[in-house]
Amino acid sequence: MLRRVAMAARAPARRQARRLTSVTPIELKRRHLPGPAGAAEPPLVLVHGIFGMGNNFATVGRKLAARREVVLVDLRNHGGSPWHDDASFEAMRADMEGVLESIGRPVSLCGHSLGGKVAMLTALQRPDLVARLCVADIAPVRYEMEANRAIIEALLAVPETALGDRKEVDSALAASETAIAQGGGGLGNPFVRGFLLQSLQPETRSWRLNLRALLGSYEALRGFPAPAGSRAEMPALFIGGANGGMLQPKHLPACEALFPNARLEMVATGHFVHSEAPATFVELVDRFCAEG
């Protein structure tokens, strides 16, 4: 079931915001899903959330590639992208800017959770690179996110000797104090553990996640460092999980203040909209991208 809330357009965009800090961009791993030959639509770049990787979007990405090229990106410190001690939003935004510049024309940029915040910051600071913006279950606000900190600590606590066996890691996480405390909404949920285990590398007894860097940036990643006065006028679609997701109708004012040409769709899912309702997610994103 879908519920739409329209956001009214406002005044023209203000001058593009400058970078907040000086960072060293890194080249991100990306996977290209070719679209139809001669496709007129802009490429669609999909950006995963914390603890994820570009391949989290592989299933929906292949369907969305029926009408345009799709690019799956691994954020720094995730998946196959390089690790770096700097896990700040500004660093991730600079990395994303490099990806978009390499494509050579404005794209449709879609991010989930942490990737949604990176996508929003990129759109605010480089609107010339983003034709359309899609954000899945996150708002440009500060969140508590204590659950994520506990998950990082639980992953770090898994003995290295156990990392060579997926089932052993799953059992260790399920029995952890974090799982007991979080219950069905966190590590106590087999779906969440299965999602995390996608980043396990049993052959090297390691994670595809730079957990130390993510833990060090935990406090900063709770917020949203939008430059003062910044706004972006491109069409923007926000997709929220109505069943306990992180993007709710109460967040509309914050979204509207930064992205006046935006609309909100509420879907009957939790936080992982693209995994819990892939057909609905594809329908919404496909239609939104085709509007341009």
TrEMBL record:
Pfam families recorded for this chain? Abhydrolase_1
Under Gene Ontology molecular function, one entry of this record is: carboxylic ester hydrolase activity
Q: Which domain of life is it from?
A: Eukaryota
- Keyword Nucleotide-binding assigned: no
Gene3D superfamilies linked to this entry? alpha/beta hydrolase
Cross-referenced InterPro entries: AB_hydrolase_1, AB_hydrolase_fold
Annotated keywords: Hydrolase
Naming one, the record's GO cellular component terms include: mitochondrion
Q: Where is the AB hydrolase-1 domain?
A: 42-278
Family assignment from sequence similarity: Belongs to the AB hydrolase superfamily.
Q: Sorted alphabetically, which PANTHER family does this protein's record hold?
A: PROTEIN ABHD11
State what protein this is by name: AB hydrolase-1 domain-containing protein
Q: What is the lineage of its organism?
A: Eukaryota, Haptista, Haptophyta, Prymnesiophyceae, Isochrysidales
